Input
Amino acid sequence: MNETMNHPALLPAGMRDVLPPEAELEARTVERLMESFAAYGFQRVEPPLLEFEDSLFAGAGAATAEQTFRVMDPESQRMLGFRADTTPQIGRLAATRLAAAPRPLRLAYAGQCLRVRGSQVQPERQVAQAGIELIGHDSALADAEIFLAAAAALAAVGLRQVSFDLTAPQLVAGLLEAAFAPKQRAELARALDRKDAATVASLGGERSKMLLALLAATGNAESAVPALLAIGLPPPARALAERMADIVVAVRARNPALAITVDPVEFRGYRYHTGVCATVFCGATGAELGRGGRYLCGDTEPAAGLTLYPDTIVRVAPAPALRPRVFVPFGTPADAEAALRAQNYATVAGLEQVADAQAEARRQKCSHWLHNGRAAAV
Output
């Protein structure tokens, strides 16, 4: 038992080694996503993996506090936190280092995050993120741009059949907070999350009709949005519904074929979102590819963003073509190796003479070997 627990390959729960070729596939996927973001004008930034917790938890970062690993900095004697989500760090950059930069500010990022706990769906505690943020403009066009840029990035890695599920976390939260005591709010929130119409009807009181109508206003955007707008919502909720409708119109103008669904009672995720949000799903597998939405940057500046999950994308997207590996026997001239690399081969050089170069190529997991001056299939 002790030998097993002390095995050098044993890792903490939720951590894993990424081995070849998956590590290269993920790196290639991330770079394709980032190249697509750059084509939409989003400039890459790279915040540090850990920060002072005071700044990490400022503004939207407060919502990540329970998921944040903390350590003591031996130099400053202050508490540090490993980021659990990159978006709050982008907010810090926008409010400080980039405060004087022209708005709207378009930023992109890619990196690893560390979380205290995984979930049943995603048990990993170290997760990759690649995302974009549009800061300093509050409009349906800005929201739509984020979703369109994310859809284009997914298409760039071969995922064209994707669905954007639009939600408005504050819509239901505002309705419940205005009309129910805390215990009732919690019970109704659970019932709405489970789509339990019977419980909603029994607990909803005067709001039952409205809440049930919200439950029914779910599905394809072309039918769900009109149903949502037909509900007699109070002004704050009505404004969210109208913004959702405007976003659908803006997206449809640029990408008519993009699948858009609506779920006005969905409110999972970090609680810093203040407006319309979206969860992105793979049409073929139903895998969650990313999520994001509108929030406040630095408590006051409007912003919208979306984070994609490269770990999941690698599992469901067509694998990008990697360089074929060619075994180059010991003593091959350097210019012959260089010529192979110029032809997009990855050269695996022999470091000593071997009796059978083709067999050595197989052992080294190469698809080709250099034979009679050319790359031959193994």
Residues 162-282 form a domain with the BirA Bifunctional Protein; domain 2 fold (CATH 3.30.930.10).
